[in-house]
Amino acid sequence: MTGQLSSRARRDRYGSKINRTHSPVLAYAVPWVSVMLGSLIPQLPIASAVPLMPPLGYLMLLSWRLVRPGLLPVWAGFPLGLFDDLFSGQPLGCAMLLWSATMIGIELVETRFPWRGFFQDWIVASVIVTWYLVLAAMFSGASVSAGVFLVLIPQLVLSVALIPLLSRFVAGLDRFRLTRVRSLG
Amino acid sequence: MAPTSARRSGHSRRAQYGLFTGYVLAAIGAAVGAILLGVSLWRPSSFNGLRGAAADTVAPVGEASAAGRAGGQGLFDSIAGYLAAGSQNAKLKQEVELARIRLKEAEAVKTENARLKALLGFSESETKPVTVARLIGSSAASTRRFAYLSAGKNQGVGIGMPVRSPRGIVGRVLEVGANSSRVLLLADSESVIPVRRSKDEVVAFAEGRGDGRLRIRLINLGINPLKKGDVFVTSGAGGYYHPGIAVGILQEVTGDGGIAAVISDPAATDYVAVEPIWQPEAIKAAQTPVEKAIEE
């Protein structure tokens, strides 16, 4: 019984098991930090004349919530929303309210439809993002007219198209989150 | 995907309380958010300090990405330039000829202008910019149109100061942090700027529409004299902006004015100059209630 072990026996998808273990810092920080980076990214690359960038922070939160339910607590919308408000240009409180409401709302959807699949997740996320963009435009403090909503359409299309990609990205981040790193001692 | 079991707390009191607390915290979070939102809609400048500090912390990253952006645009421009070089060269030669003639004319007008001003005893010094800085970002995901500037209180930037690029007006400083500030762009739906047509005295207001264009509303209604291609410049009314800086070019004529494109598109702007408020006394006077006299 002392034959050679399979070369994969000491590895799994998160890396080698010998002398390596999951890092609590990574496991807890990755979801939060990735959402916060998502909030920061839209303001960096371009000073645009129309709102075009999808609300990346919000989409990251949605993806984490839908891809890995139960990982972010229900109240995560509040601190992450506060951070987003500091940079998004929306009046302070807008993202806090909408992100918290989103987390509670998804919880309700999940109790109603416990079994979900890719397309159902995509539809749920698309509907939620549509509402988010419209409500954010209404709460933005700008005088609301039909033109404002017309401008939202390209942003909305981009956001909906981005949701599956972000889900894959979040799944990748989730693997990274649980990577085994060399443990000391 | 299978439902998670985290929501089912079973008989454990601890798990039940933990779950319940989560929901309560989320509801409280939403309520606090709603209150803060109400406060910031009611009094938009309530949390300026907080946002200013936050913008200061990410300003260096914005600076780096702005440099990269300018470089990238330059690269694409030079590639496009190679493709259109021949025909463009001929066209440019023609334009230079015309421009030389216009320059001479402008010189004549300038001397005449100086003479007339001397006659009136009206002296006007060239405005020196407070500082020159980079546009390091914008609220690209929001409906509001704000840009972030890499200069703040330490560089002498103050609230209300006009921001311009070599092409024309970009916007006005709205909030000031230590080393960064927030600029209300012309296209924001809360931005209104008094303008006049460049060639005559047709005065109007240019309001942002939130979609990157401006709505020109004539002050004197009647027959709409505007034509496609009319250029609007600041009129100096209100005292914020120095008169005669380019604002927009008319694209469509409507019943009470028109729709204009912003001449100085923030997406194509790298460095901008922050200028002092043109007539600070006028602003002070406008902010003083009628009952109170302005002290000397």
Please tell me about this protein's structure.
- The complex is a heterodimer of chains A (185) and B (296).
- Chain A has helices at 24-40, 56-67, 77-88, 94-112, 118-138, 146-177; strands at residues 11-12, 15-16, 20-22, 180-182.
- Chain A is mainly α and 185 residues long.
- Chain A has one domain.
- In chain A, the strands form 2 sheets. Chain A has a two-stranded antiparallel ribbon. Chain A has a two-stranded antiparallel sheet with strand order 3-4.
- In chain A, a hairpin with a 2-residue loop joins strand 1 (11-12) and strand 2 (15-16).
- In chain A, helix 1 runs parallel beside helix 3.
- In chain A, 43% of the residues are buried.
- Chain B is of the alpha+beta class.
- Chain B has 2 domains: 69-124, no CATH class; 129-289, Thrombin, subunit H, CATH 2.40.10.
- In chain B, the strands form 2 sheets. In chain B, strands 1-2-5-4-3-12 form a 6-stranded antiparallel beta barrel.
- In chain B, a hairpin with a 4-residue loop joins strand 3 (162-164) and strand 4.
- The termini of chain B are far apart.
- The model of chain B has no long low-confidence stretch (mean pLDDT 81).
- At the A-B interface, helix 3, helix 4 and helix 6 of A face helix 1, helix 2, strand 1 and strand 2 of B.
- Residues in helix, % of chain B: 25-40%
Q: What is the CATH architecture annotation of the largest domain in chain B?
A: Beta Barrel
Q: Beta-strand level of the residues of chain A, as a percent range?
A: 5-15%
**Regions of chain A with pLDDT < 50 over 5+ consecutive residues?**
none
Question: Topology, please?
Answer:
The complex is a heterodimer of chains A (185) and B (296).
Chain A: E1 11-12, E2 15-16, E3 20-22, H1 24-40, H2 56-67, H3 77-88, H4 94-112, H5 118-138, H6 146-177, E4 180-182
Antiparallel strand pairs in A: 1-2, 3-4
Chain B: H1 13-42, H2 48-83, H3 85-120, E1 131-138, E2 146-149, E3 162-164, E4 169-176, E5 181-185, E6 192-197, E7 203-208, E8 213-218, E9 231-234, E10 246-254, E11 257-262, E12 271-274, H4 280-287
Antiparallel strand pairs in B: 1-2, 1-12, 2-5, 3-4, 3-12, 4-5, 6-7, 6-9, 7-8, 8-11, 9-10, 10-11
